[in-house]
Specification:
It is a single chain. The longest helix has 24 residues. Helices cover 32% and strands 27% of the residues. The N and C termini lie far apart (73 Å). The chain has one domain: START domain (Alpha-D-Glucose-1,6-Bisphosphate, Chain A, domain 4, 2-Layer Sandwich), CATH 3.30.530.20. The chain is built from four helices and seven strands; from the N terminus they run αβαββββββαα. The protein is an alpha+beta fold.
């Protein structure tokens, strides 16, 4: 007969096995897409456009029609909120919030807190915005988006679309910071700008 000690060890082993299995299962729930670009501008300027001007993402995102601060937010800081419209009528939108920010390391965590006509699992979807000083007058800006869709079976299906969105937005950021020219879904300059950067070595 097994002793009580043997039973306890068996239960503990089973618990550890379950925890490992759950951890592996959780890892499979989300996908990650990433985009980065070297920008010919100081890190402080890139951080300003990308994060401090949080509500003004429509200055450089070719996929956003309008954006702005909501619920009393005035600048990119902890708990700031913004609304982004993804069609001309404003019926497809996200409400987003800065959940964590480190101005010294230049990293920010952004989450979607509400959305209309976006199939995102809001509990498992978030993004990191980062800026790195390259010590030569240039900076590297990056977006990392970790997400899961709702329904979940679409998670892998939309990965290329989300990657394209990140890549387009980082190119838009680069162009906006370097030239001051605004890019959004209302402007007619995006195709020419995209072609310019895609053909660069």
């Amino acid at each position: 007969m097994k002793t009580i000690k043997q039973y306890l060890l068996a239960v503990m082993f089973l618990g550890v096995s379950i925890n490992i299995t759950l951890a592996q299962s959780d890892d499979k729930k989300t996908k990650t897409v990433y985009a980065e670009a070297t920008i010919n501008a100081p890190a402080a300027r890139v951080w300003e456009a990308m994060v401090l001007d949080y509500g003004e993402i429509s200055n450089f995102s070719p996929y956003i029609y309008t954006s702005g601060y909501i619920k009393g937010s005035l600048k990119g800081e902890l708990n700031a909120k913004r609304k982004c419209a993804f069609n001309a009528k404003g019926t497809r939108w996200t409400h987003e919030q800065i959940m964590a920010i480190d101005h010294k390391k230049m990293i920010m965590k952004n989450v979607v807190i509400d959305a209309e006509k976006f199939p995102l699992n809001k509990d498992l979807s978030y993004a990191y915005y980062r800026v790195k000083d390259n010590s030569d007058g240039t900076s590297t800006a990056s977006y990392e988006f970790i997400y899961r869709t709702d329904p979940g079976f679409m998670t892998g299906m939309v990965k290329d679309k989300f990657r394209k969105t990140l890549e387009g937005t980082i190119i838009g950021l680069k162009h906006y910071v370097e030239t001051g020219e605004i890019i959004n879904a209302n402007t007619d300059n995006w195709k020419a700008i995209l072609k310019k950067y895609k053909t660069q070595p």
